[in-house]
């Protein structure tokens, strides 16, 4: 069939896609950014109609710092409308794995950079090469000033969509007009005719205007003289559409009023192997983004309560280190090995900054807590970073604790405590203790270690092969080192229908990205030959260590039951030496027809239990009918480092690691005798919680549980001294349970405090916030899965609602 091109228009999008890190390190990427931008500026001088499209504020920030004269040229081209700013984010990140707040910060720092340097922000989100896109992004985009979105992956062979142009709607109802790039975002040939004719196959009703991307990319380059000459030549040919120099904003303006379909799901899947590739970078990223959020909260309190200067510049620099390393070829695990040495250093800088800020703020606050003098005492002030109360065990190394000791709260009441294994191997002077804390919302309590025998608290029952408390009995499988049985005694419910927490090994001959793969389903063995040993027994927790083996690898899992906690904690250490294999932990839930729910960036996603490899944040839940009773029950798996899962029928499987060749990209075929390096060789650690529950994840309060595992209390050793603060106190609380305060910080312009609220259950509510540290109390509505940003001004002014970039005021809260 011949395509009618009489009225068709191709918006020719000249761009130079630049991976600042991939098969090269960032210094080389930096140089390529300079070279590409120089080339684009030269083409703009030579061709008066040419328009260059540019994303990534972080790249432009490099140019501003290193080549201010070039940056001034770019500013002039932006003013005349020929250097088009798109994206609005710091880089083009992986669009599945960062936490929700990281996506907010991509826009916060990116859009504010654009506004401050160019007097305008971007209106089009732009991630052409990212490997899939979380379904919760539309709200984050829209509230960052990005009303349109452009992407390419997944392609039509990976996900069918109702058209190239569609409205993308998030779970909260937010919509952005979205375009999927046809075929490719960059070109390598000099003449573009073959590319243009291929794109013509996409023409059709209701849209007779399309974007056609061109320009040398990946390692930069941008549009060439030959590209531009071929566009000029083709514009005289009658059987081709009008080829119009354009940019994404001009394109969306042209099609804004068209009737197009609506898509209400994620944009998946491309490169499912990247959800697990390189365990290190995944762990560093999660640690750093959560550590910075916690540091901001405590620093804000220290500023408001004690006058300590707010370290805004330090925190911004640390956030930008994290945001840069969320670039899709870094966080995805698909870059060369040496690139991860750089990433480790930069994440380390961010983590060190967070630690310094946190410690300074917590010390400043704890020094003002009134702590009475008691002979031989060791006081500790423990801070809760959450705006809801938490009750959980904490751990701390200390010295000089006598054999007989008691831990008390600020009221002198003894609480369960016990010695556990110290990090130090010495004669016994250093001890590690764990004790139970019960902390008020975003507040603190004082706990004191005293000499003398504690009251008798019953120990959690345990042996080498079992653990038992009031809620659960856990029996070990001495062959695999997994869980032979987990009985929920509260309803006489067997949580698993078969042995759980077993290390399954599956074949994986795919490349680093797992191109063309959607699930790992070829088992080759499992960890076995286990030894189980009781390593702790006490009134806080008892722990069994299970060590199992496969090939040259060892899997160590330490299973703990606590006296009064509703979960099983498992600390994992893997020493891995296999190649072309995947390691998964297997949890066969005893449920009928369950629904799988995954945490997504600032929201959740439900997916079929078909065994597909899926990205997830900190938790995944299966909720369904418990076969024997017909009651609705569920099982949640929460973890602090992993982001790849599958759910098959009634099974949760956590992908611990993959071991493909590093930076191997199809279609290259490795040689049989080649000398290659493989991912995730050696030792790594992480922690997961198993949380059986009644009802669904909503009734079980899973979002707060996940936050409790991954954002831990801050423990400050103190001494006795007077102070203006009571021995226990709360600075901020949020109700009801489906409201979370994810951010407390100073506003970017310094005019007050910023609070970010998220509705976590998909149920509209009215948030009730109590803020004693500011002498305020407020109520504000929250829609289902809504992200709301509040500005509480210094002084007595009204509380305002801001967009996520803090550049626009949306009205009173």
From TrEMBL:
Gene Ontology molecular functions: alpha-mannosidase activity; carbohydrate binding; metal ion binding
Family matches, as SMART domains: Alpha-mann_mid
Keyword Nuclease applies: no
A biological-process GO annotation: mannose metabolic process
Superkingdom of source: Bacteria
Glycoside hydrolase family 38 central domain span: 268-347
Keywords, ordered alphabetically: Glycosidase, Hydrolase, Metal-binding
InterPro entries according to UniProt: Gal_mutarotase_sf_dom (IPR011013), GH38_C (IPR041147), Glyco_hydro/deAcase_b/a-brl (IPR011330), Glyco_hydro_38_C (IPR011682), Glyco_hydro_38_cen (IPR015341), Glyco_hydro_38_cen_sf (IPR037094), Glyco_hydro_38_N (IPR000602), Glyco_hydro_38_N_sf (IPR027291)
UniProt keyword Hydrolase present: yes
Family per similarity comment: Belongs to the glycosyl hydrolase 38 family.
Protein name stated in the entry: Alpha-mannosidase
Source organism of this protein record: Deinococcus aerius
Classification of source organism: Bacteria, Thermotogati, Deinococcota, Deinococci, Deinococcales
């Amino acid at each position: 069939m011949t395509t009618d091109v009489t009225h068709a228009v191709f918006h020719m999008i000249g761009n130079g896609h630049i991976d600042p890190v991939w098969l090269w390190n960032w210094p080389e990427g930096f140089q390529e950014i300079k070279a590409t931008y120089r080339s684009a500026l030269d083409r703009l001088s030579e061709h008066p109609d040419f328009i260059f499209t540019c994303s990534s504020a972080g790249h432009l920030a490099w140019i501003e710092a290193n080549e201010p004269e070039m940056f001034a040229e770019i500013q002039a081209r932006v003013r005349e409308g020929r250097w088009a700013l798109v994206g609005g984010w710091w880089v083009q990140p992986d669009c599945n794995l960062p936490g929700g707040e990281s996506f907010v910060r991509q826009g916060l720092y990116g859009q504010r950079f654009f506004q401050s340097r160019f007097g305008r922000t971007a209106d089009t989100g732009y991630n052409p090469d990212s490997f899939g896109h979380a379904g919760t992004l539309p709200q984050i985009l829209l509230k960052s000033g990005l009303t349109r979105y452009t992407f390419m992956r997944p392609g039509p062979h990976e996900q069918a969509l109702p058209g190239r142009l569609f409205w993308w709607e998030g779970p909260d109802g937010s919509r952005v007009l979205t375009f999927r790039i046809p075929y490719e975002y960059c070109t390598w040939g000099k003449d573009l005719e073959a590319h243009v004719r291929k794109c013509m196959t996409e023409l059709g009703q209701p849209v007779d205007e399309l974007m056609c991307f061109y320009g040398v990319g990946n390692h930069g380059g941008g549009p060439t003289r030959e590209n531009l000459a071929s566009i000029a030549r083709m514009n005289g040919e009658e059987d081709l559409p009008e080829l119009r120099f354009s940019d994404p904003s001009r394109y969306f303006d042209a099609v804004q009023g068209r009737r197009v379909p609506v898509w209400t799901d994620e944009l998946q899947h491309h490169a499912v192997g990247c959800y697990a590739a390189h365990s290190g970078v995944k762990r560093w990223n999660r640690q750093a983004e959560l550590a910075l959020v916690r540091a901001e909260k405590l620093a804000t309190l220290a500023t408001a309560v004690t006058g300590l200067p707010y370290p805004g510049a330090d925190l911004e620099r640390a956030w930008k280190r994290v945001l840069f390393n969320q670039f899709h070829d870094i966080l995805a695990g698909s870059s060369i090995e040496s690139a991860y040495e750089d990433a480790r250093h930069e994440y380390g800088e961010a983590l060190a900054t967070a630690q310094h800020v946190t410690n300074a703020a917590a010390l400043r606050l704890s020094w003002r807590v009134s702590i009475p003098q008691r002979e031989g005492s060791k006081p500790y002030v423990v801070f809760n970073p959450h705006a809801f109360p938490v009750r959980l065990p904490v751990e701390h190394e200390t010295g000089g604790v006598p054999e007989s000791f008691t831990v008390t709260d600020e009221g002198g009441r003894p609480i369960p405590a016990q010695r556990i294994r110290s990090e130090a191997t010495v004669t016994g002077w250093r001890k590690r203790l764990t004790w139970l804390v019960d902390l008020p919302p975003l507040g603190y309590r004082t706990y004191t270690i005293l000499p003398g025998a504690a009251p008798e608290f019953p120990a959690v029952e345990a042996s080498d092969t079992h653990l038992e408390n009031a809620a659960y009995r856990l029996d070990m499988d001495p062959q695999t080192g997994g869980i032979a049985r987990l009985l929920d005694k509260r309803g006489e419910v067997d949580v698993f229908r078969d042995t759980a927490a077993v290390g399954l090994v599956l074949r994986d001959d795919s490349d680093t990205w797992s191109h063309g793969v959607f699930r790992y389903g070829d088992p080759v063995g499992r960890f076995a030959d286990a030894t189980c040993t009781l390593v702790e027994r006490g009134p806080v927790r008892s722990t069994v260590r299970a060590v199992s083996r496969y090939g040259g690898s060892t899997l160590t899992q330490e299973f703990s039951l606590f006296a009064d906690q509703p979960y099983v904690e498992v600390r994992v250490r893997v020493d891995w030496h296999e190649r072309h294999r995947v390691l998964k932990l297997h949890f066969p839930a005893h449920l009928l027809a369950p629904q799988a729910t995954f945490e997504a960036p600032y929201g959740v996603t439900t997916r079929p239990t078909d065994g597909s490899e899926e990205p997830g944040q900190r938790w995944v839940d299966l909720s369904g009918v418990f076969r024997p009773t017909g009651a609705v029950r569920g099982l949640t798996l929460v973890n602090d480092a992993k982001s790849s899962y599958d759910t098959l029928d009634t099974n949760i499987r956590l992908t611990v690691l993959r071991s493909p060749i590093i930076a191997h990209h199809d279609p290259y075929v490795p040689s049989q005798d080649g000398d290659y390096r493989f991912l995730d060789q050696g030792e790594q650690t992480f922690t997961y919680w198993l949380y059986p529950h009644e009802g669904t994840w909503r009734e079980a309060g899973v979002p707060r549980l996940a936050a409790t595992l991954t954002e831990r209390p801050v423990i400050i050793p103190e001494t006795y001294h007077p102070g203006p603060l009571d021995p226990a106190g709360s600075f901020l609380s949020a109700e009801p349970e489906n409201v979370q305060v994810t951010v407390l910080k100073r506003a970017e312009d310094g005019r007050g405090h910023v609070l970010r609220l998220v509705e976590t259950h998909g149920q509209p509510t009215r948030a009730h916030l109590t803020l004693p540290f500011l002498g305020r109390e407020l109520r504000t509505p929250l829609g289902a899965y809504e992200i709301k940003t509040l500005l509480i001004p210094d002084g007595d002014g009204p509380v305002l609602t801001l967009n996520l970039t803090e550049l626009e005021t949306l009205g009173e809260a």
